[in-house]
Every structure is written in structure tokens, then in C-alpha cells.
């Protein structure tokens, strides 16, 4: 994968496959500590300790469509290649939390990519899931929770073109505002 947003998409799809109906995606860029942290937390079926211990093996997967699972091992390798680390915390019946930490300035760190587009795809493609997104750079933060949007829409599908446009623009604008505010010299 060429961008971290695609790793987020892959891990979120794992969460959906695990029966999650609430998924929180957090992206934090800490400029002071030169760290980028990505966390995907779900309330899916979870995994036992044995499965968690094996899950970073590229030849282990719970999918039935193919016998090789590369998403988690590649995400782990990407973090470790950038002086970071990778953790999975999970309990059966309680869900899973995947965290990847990168040295933000590392020359081999992939770009974040199209976060807004990735999140829009997840939100619109799985309207039955409660999506929460948090993006932070230092002290500036943007949060998007799709539940209030769904309540206001009162049955209008998320795939309606005007709703799709609203979601994408809200995400893009929120992310861009955090980036603009945090990159001013006073906020470093």
C-alpha cells in the first residue's frame, strides 16, 4: 500500500467483517514529539490471546475469500520501518484496538493520503456502522461523528449525492482547518 489511509481502510474493513457496529478511527500527529499515531478501535467479536499473538503473520487470516492476510502484517512492518511500533489489544466479545505509531518525519513513512475520501467510503458504504473520526495535530482537533448526521437525515440515504458531498466536504474542511491552524509558527 502506498498511503496510510489505505491501511486504515483495510483495518476498518476487518472490523466490519468482525461484526463491529461502532468503529473509532483516530489519527494524531504530534509535531513536538515527531510522532504519528493511528488507532482503529471497534466493538466487534474480538480475538483470543492466541489469535492476537498470531495475527501479524501474513499467512493467518479469518477471511474465507483468500488464505493470506497481509493488511495487519504490512501495517505493522510500515510502522516498524519508521522507528515506530504496532500493537493489537483484543478480547473476545469486547472488540479490538489496533495502534500503529510512526516517527512522523521518517523518510520511509508513507503519506497519510486521502483521509477524507477513505472515511467517506467507509461511512457511505456501511451506513449501519456508527463511525467516529478524530484528527489531531498537537492541540488542534477535528471530530466527526456520523450519528448526529444520520438522525438529522431521518432516513435519507447516505448515498444521496448531496449527502455524500456534505460528508466529504465536512471531513475535508475539518482536516484542512486542523492542518492550517497547527502549521502556524506559534503552534509548533
DSSP summary: helix tally: 6
> What is the overall silhouette?
globular
Largest sheet: 6 strands, mixed
Helix content: 25-40%
CATH topology annotation:
Heat Shock Protein 90
Report the β-strand fraction as a percent range.
25-35%
| Total beta strand runs | 6
Looking at the overall shape, the CATH architecture is 2-Layer Sandwich
Q: Rounded to an integer, what's the Rg over CA atoms?
A: 17 Å
The structure class reads alpha+beta
Strands in their spatial order, largest beta sheet: 3-4-2-1-5-6
Describe, in plain words, how this protein is organized in 3D:
The chain is 38% helix and 25% strand. The protein has 188 residues and is of the alpha+beta class. The chain has a six-stranded mixed β-sheet. Helix 1 (4-17) runs antiparallel to helix 3 (71-80) and helix 1 (4-17) packs parallel to helix 4 (115-125). The longest helix is centred in the C-terminal third of the chain and has 22 residues, at 161-182. It is globular.
Task: Record keyword descriptors for this entry.
about 190 residues, about 40% helix, single chain, globular, Heat Shock Protein 90
What is the topology?
Layout: H1 4-17, E1 22-30, E2 35-42, H2 49-54, H3 71-80, E3 85-91, E4 95-103, H4 115-125, E5 130-137, E6 140-145, H5 146-153, H6 161-182
Parallel strand pairs: 1-5
Antiparallel strand pairs: 1-2, 2-4, 3-4, 5-6
Amino acid at each position: 500500500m502506498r498511503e496510510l489511509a489505505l491501511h486504515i481502510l483495510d483495518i476498518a474493513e476487518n472490523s466490519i467483517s468482525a461484526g463491529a457496529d461502532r468503529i473509532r478511527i483516530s489519527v494524531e500527529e504530534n509535531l513536538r514529539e515527531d510522532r504519528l499515531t493511528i488507532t482503529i478501535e471497534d466493538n466487534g467479536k474480538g480475538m483470543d490471546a492466541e489469535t492476537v499473538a498470531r495475527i501479524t503473520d501474513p499467512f493467518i487470516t479469518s477471511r474465507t475469500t483468500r488464505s493470506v492476510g497481509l493488511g495487519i502484517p504490512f501495517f505493522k512492518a510500515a510502522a516498524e520501518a519508521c522507528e515506530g511500533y504496532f500493537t493489537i489489544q483484543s478480547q473476545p466479545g469486547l472488540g479490538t484496538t489496533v495502534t500503529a505509531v510512526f516517527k512522523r518525519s521518517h523518510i520511509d513513512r508513507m503519506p497519510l493520503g486521502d483521509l477524507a475520501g477513505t472515511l467517506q467510503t467507509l461511512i457511505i458504504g456501511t451506513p449501519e456502522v456508527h463511525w467516529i473520526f478524530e484528527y489531531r495535530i498537537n492541540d488542534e482537533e477535528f471530530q466527526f461523528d456520523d450519528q448526529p448526521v444520520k438522525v438529522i437525515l431521518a432516513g435519507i440515504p447516505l448515498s444521496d449525492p448531496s449527502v455524500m458531498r456534505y460528508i466529504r466536504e465536512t471531513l475535508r474542511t475539518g482536516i484542512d482547518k486542523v492542518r492550517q491552524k497547527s502549521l502556524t509558527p506559534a503552534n509548533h
